[in-house]
Design a protein that fits this description.
Length: about 400
């Protein structure tokens, strides 16, 4: 972890944060790296900064191409539907075949290695909702360090709500999955929920430094957190700490946040003779850490389960709304994560709804009396019908 950086390096990082455009950020990052002491404790930090610089250079190049009237591969795909899921895997495992079979995507399916060199989106229709799947260019050893189009693929994973990790059952699926997980871990994309999280939301000058602690700082206090942040010239920010974190975790979040993305393993080529034994080997390795969906894109076996498993793994719920005084509710639901409340729904519908909220009525089979009059803090569940009344 980047502990105890000298004041000169902390000052240089403050200049990185204040940079106004990608070109300036790259320059400031170079200056920052020039004053960071070179030893084992800073190797990971330096690696992450170099990856950020590579992404920024791609962004600069993309803007240059756009101004010149040329279009290059996009770093990110705009989200559509209820959720976006990144489809990741090594080359020739069947990602394009899966995408073309379960979504509306019109893409080239080829046995030639590394055919997909830019992200390809498609929409999977599951019951009354739409789930967007984005196929990322193939991962390989070194992707997280910027090899080939690796940073683009990792960026797609970080931007998505979840991941489909695809492996080939005709080969060694465990080695494939190990490589994928290794590259994701190096890029700080986790498949298991971390024990704690630190979010730093920088504010306007004069707002001050506020720390909201919902959990525990294992090796320090809120005062030490503020002191650490101020040493990096972060004096105006809202810092949310949840779960169990260390001061190293706080410092780490200054440079790059760790993200958690729930993952599903798609085990393709179930129709091959090696599949049965390799699937057993894969299940033993995964050991329940994430769901495994055995499929064959070739003969369409198991593909009908993909939509439901994405819905369940992302922990989504569908909420239907109706206007006061009407009998019919909307057939197109709002999609929220489990645990969300009427307040979250109100904010999704319109920003004024929370401000002008009076009460809500909820229709649900789980309620003893339905409809039930509720407030903003009422927790919603899948299939609830909500009628919001405003002042």
């Amino acid at each position: 972890m980047p502990a105890n950086l000298p004041p000169e390096a902390q000052d240089k990082w403050a200049l990185v944060e204040s940079a106004r455009n990608p070109r300036e950020k790259i320059l400031r990052m170079q200056e920052f790296l020039s004053v960071v002491p070179k030893h084992k404790g800073t190797m990971k930090l330096c690696g992450r900064i170099k990856k950020k610089m590579a992404l920024l250079r791609k962004e600069v190049n993309e803007r240059k191409q756009k101004r010149a009237g040329r279009s290059g591969p996009k770093l990110f795909i705009e989200k559509e539907g209820a959720a976006q899921v990144a489809l990741l895997g090594l080359t020739n495992v069947g990602k394009s075949c899966l995408l073309s079979t379960v979504t509306n995507a019109d893409i080239n399916v080829s046995p030639v290695a590394y055919t997909t060199i830019k992200p390809a989106p498609g929409v999977l229709y599951f019951e009354d909702m739409q789930l967007q799947i984005v196929e990322a260019p193939a991962l390989m050893s070194g992707s997280a360090d910027g090899r080939a189009w690796g940073l683009q693929s990792i960026g797609i994973a970080r931007n998505a709500d979840g991941m489909l990790l695809m492996v080939d059952l005709s080969s060694d699926p465990v080695s494939q999955l190990k490589l994928i997980l290794s590259e994701l871990e190096k890029a700080r994309v986790l498949i298991n929920k971390p024990k704690g999280r630190v979010d730093i939301d920088r504010k306007y000058m004069g707002a001050g430094l506020r720390v909201i602690l919902v959990g525990k700082i294992l090796d320090g206090t809120i005062r030490e957190v503020k002191s650490l942040l101020r040493s990096y010239r972060i004096g105006d920010a809202l810092v949310k700490i949840s779960g169990e974190v260390t001061l190293d975790d706080v410092e780490d979040s200054i440079f790059e946040s760790t993200v958690y993305r729930p993952a599903i393993v798609i085990a393709n080529k179930l129709d091959t003779k090696e599949a049965k034994n390799n699937l057993r080997y894969l299940e033993k390795f995964v050991a329940g850490r994430m769901p495994i969906v055995p499929v064959s894109c070739e003969n369409k076996q198991g593909l009908e389960k993909v939509g439901k498993i994405i819905f369940d793994t992302l922990d989504l719920i569908r909420i239907y709304t109706k206007e006061p005084g009407t009998r019919q509710y909307s057939k197109r639901p709002f999609t929220l994560q489990r645990g969300k409340t009427v307040e979250d729904l109100a904010k999704n519908i319109h920003t004024d709804f929370k401000r002008d909220f009076a009460f809500a009525r909820v229709w649900a089979k789980r309620l003893k009396f339905s409809p039930q009059k509720v407030g903003l803090g009422f927790e919603l569940d899948d299939g609830d019908i909500v009628e919001i009344h405003i002042n």
